[in-house]
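Dear colleagues,

For the upcoming journal club I promised to circulate an example of a predicted protein-ligand complex. I picked one with S-adenosyl-L-homocysteine because it came up in last month's discussion. The inputs are reproduced below in full, followed by the predicted structure.
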Amino acid sequence: MRRKNLFAMPAVWLAVGWLLGCAPRQAPSEPRWESLRQEMVARQIEARGVRDSRVLAAMRSVPRHLFVPESLRREAYGDFPLPIGDGQTISQPYIVALMTELARPESSDRALEIGTGSGYQAAVLAHLVREVYSMEILESLGNQAAARIRALGYDNINLRVGDGYAGWPESAPFDLILITAAPERVPPALLDQLSSGGRMVVPVGQEGGVQSLQLIRKHPDGSLEIKDVLPVRFVPLVHSP
Ligand code: SAH
């Protein structure tokens, strides 16, 4: 008797299909973070006029998705700020790039950031300057940022939990100071800690209102040149209780 070819029978194919359908499904694959980053830089940052090639390269290499809560990773490369816990936010990618470019980072510079938050801006700076100092007033965020920065292997970022209004006098002066929360007035201690020739980028204005992103340059004679760059909206730079 001739053997039947089983695979010629439609019922067998149906059974095979059913079995395959019951196979455990694969978890949805991870997005291609690298290409999302390239796209973010091209569409949101270069397209809006940021030109400094070192800044663009830093924005292309820092894994922003690792600086946001796990549940928001897939949105990390979107054109908006995201919540990072404790009522705080990581700034929109364009604003991070713009503030960094305005400060004209040089590889021999030392930079101070006030408002560590997730640690993302500090990581971007770490690609561009010799040493980064960053202060955060909320202990929980400061500790999370420290763990993240350590895990990613950055060795030129110094973090401190404390009130940024006082700055970091022992390590001053700084060639650039970025303030990533808005004070109503520029804190005088921070202006003192800016080097001669140094650049500060700071959103100045009232909580909830429109603030002005200012670029402040300290000339060798100590005089300050202040330029309003853009209306922005940041969380407030709070005073410690
Ligand atoms: N640069 C951050 C985002 C900053 S959000 C990032 O890349 O993720 C602003 C941060 O400033 C918040 O984490 C807030 O807690 C912190 N902050 C507010 N007032 C502060 C102060 N007086 N000193 C230091 N940090 C302060």
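Two points we might discuss: Residues 40 and 77 are 6 Å apart (CA to CA). Residues 88-91, 114-115, 117-118, 120-121, 135-138, 141, 163-165, 180-181, 235, 237-238 surround S-adenosyl-L-homocysteine (CB under 6 Å).

See you all on Thursday,
B. R.
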